[in-house]
């Protein structure tokens, strides 16, 4: 495929759960006023020109949908935002558990958000430990792979009859972004993530046929973040993953590596 495709990954703006761990049990919290301001700033700083954006998707959680609609409002005047259930956040806290499809539709209609909820079916927000939306790492990695493959297929479809550069967007969540990109550097900079609220990074697909649909951050995106040189090797990322898991546990978060420790609803000994 000769057409260049850029995938913009955007973390949502500040939600009420980002104000402190005492708010983690708020169910699918909305953006704060600051979160809305962050969206306006991101649009002004990085997305004034949206003429090349051909597709926008987001997690079905309210804060992600709202962020997408604020940042990419010019694009969504003529396009529809696709909500992808597999892009939901990782943990089983209330704040990471989405609302039922009927509520999402009512909310979208109320605010005039042009969102396609056709993929968001009953049970999409069921985070049982043995289910597909489990917070356990293998399930998280599997969901991330589904999202990458879906985005890559959309990119291939959009690039069939053009040589123009195509940009696509995913708005999702801090912890999920680590699984999506397989980047684990500085993962304890924030609570359960290295991604700041309303941070955007840009990626290429490594290959258009590989099973994992892996992505790599562009040099320009890394430079914008003040990072020189290529990303860490796959072997180093594996080491950084374990460091991230250990660090998140030290922050008081569940250990996602095991069914026995991955749930925030299960009692855990204090560190």
From TrEMBL:
Record SMART domains: PGAM (SM00855)
One GO CC term, this protein: cytoplasm
Annotated GO MF terms: phosphatase activity
InterPro entries: His_Pase_superF_clade-1, His_PPase_superfam, PGM_Phosphatase
Entry-linked SUPFAM superfamilies: Phosphoglycerate mutase-like
Pfam families: His_Phos_1 (PF00300)
Alphabetical list of PANTHER family matching this protein: BROAD-SPECIFICITY PHOSPHATASE YOR283W-RELATED, PHOSPHATASE SPAC5H10.03-RELATED
Name listed for the protein in its UniProt record: Phosphoglycerate mutase family protein
